[in-house]
Amino acid sequence: MVSELARLFLKLGITSFGGPAAHVALMEEEFVHKRQWLSREKFLDLIALTNLIPGPNSTELAIHIGYLRAGWLGFAVAGLCFILPAFLIVALIAAFYTAYASLPEVQSFLVGAKAVVFAVILLAFERFAKSLWRIDQWKELFYKNTWSEKRRVLVSFIFIASIYMSLVRGYSEILILFNCGLISLFISARFPRTRTHELGTLFWVFFKIGAVLFGSGYVLLSFLQTELVQARPWLTQSQLLDAVTVGQFTPGPVFTTATFIGYLLHGPVGAVLATVGIFTPAFLFVALSIPLYKKLETSLHFRAILDGVVAGSLGLLFTVFWTFGPEIAKTALTLGIFTVSLVFLKRTRFPSAGLIFLGGLLSFFATKI
Predict the structure, then answer these.
(1) N or C: lower Cβ tally within 10 Å for the chain?
(2) For the chain, what is the radius of gyration of the CA atoms?
(3) pTM of whole model > 0.90?
């Protein structure tokens, strides 16, 4: 049973392109429809549970499935086997990048690839916003008086507040999410720098991010921007976008962006430490959530805090566009690739990884003309 679990999650880790939504769809096909290990209702319960805790949701879903299938050994095997292929692939790409990223040909490819990644992130923002507000027209916010509509007003306020705290006040992401959670709980109660890459610091930075990141792997970009570009100028903004591009282009968890960054900063050892640091909280939170699931699920106070944290995460995702948008819009080529990619992604089911590759090829050949 454990060997089968390992084989299946290694296969998913190698073939699951497209980000968290694609990962969940592949797991549903494999474990609900094909093998019938879980009912659809139980699968949806597990998805809901992963949304209640920080960390990479698709990885946490894999860990939960492993636990249900083979106990604590399955818990470890499923998570590690889902992460391992992406870790190895990203580490190899990081080694290539370290050696050859200065070549004009590589930079030409990355220009187009990053423009497509920006379109992918924008669509992720749209999906998360719709799921958070569950409305089609903003005007509905001001004409309803039910609790669900008051909730929408609340998360809208917190979303705007998180943008203010980030762009105007310059608060850290952790402080922003903490404040957003407290604001939501308080309001809902009224309604019944150094340049050295020291290894310990490297591990702690990624462990901290993995322990507090709600919303999606896409919000990761905002955390990394603060920790590695501003607070510790270890990377340039261009290098950070390159890292996120690699995380999008490769299969498996988007959080393996940490592998790429760790390799850039401290070689293979840094890649291992950054990866272990960012994924360890996922295993810890899943282990803690197994016995507490029913209690957390029915806690109105906890859900109020969660609403605020998720709305704050969405605001942080918005700040990503504000920060990196000028880089995408500075040339007609990148702006054109971004626009076409956005339309293509919205109207087709073409894999985002394939589109990122095509965007890179387009910019590569465009520079040769």
Answers:
(1) C
(2) 20
(3) no
